[in-house]
């Protein structure tokens, strides 16, 4: 999996969870909404770290080929 594919996947997943948080807030389930917002934030943070690592590894493989 390339870094760009992983980036799209984690952003889409975080967006889906954020939509669920909006729906939970609309239904007056505020603690569930808060938990989902924290989960979406953690996915964005973890995904950014993962993509950064994947991008660094891709560049290292390109340098090995040279």
What does this structure look like?
It is a single chain. The protein is mostly helical and 66 residues long. The chain contains two helices and no strands. Helix 1 runs antiparallel to helix 2.
List unreliable stretches of 5+ residues: none
Quickly count the helices.
2
Q: End-to-end distance, in Å?
A: 22 Å
Number of strands: 0
Give the overall pLDDT as a whole number: 93
Structural class: mainly alpha
Strand count, sense and barrel status of the largest sheet are: none
Q: Percent range for helical residues? A: over 70%
From the alpha carbons, calculate the radius of gyration and give it in angstroms.
16 Å
Gross geometry: rod-shaped
Order of helices and strands: HH
DSSP strand (E) fraction? under 5%
Key terms:
66 residues, mainly alpha, 2 helices
Architecture blueprint of SSEs:
Elements lengths: L2 H24 L3 H36 L1
Q: What is this structure, in a nutshell?
A:
This protein is 91% helix and 0% strand. It is mainly α and 66 residues long.
């Amino acid at each position: 999996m390339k870094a760009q594919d992983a980036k799209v996947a984690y952003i889409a997943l975080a967006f889906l969870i954020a939509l669920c948080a909006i729906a939970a807030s609309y239904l007056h389930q505020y603690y569930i909404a808060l938990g989902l917002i924290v989960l979406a934030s953690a996915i964005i943070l973890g995904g950014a770290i993962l993509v950064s690592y994947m991008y660094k590894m891709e560049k290292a493989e390109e340098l090995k080929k040279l």
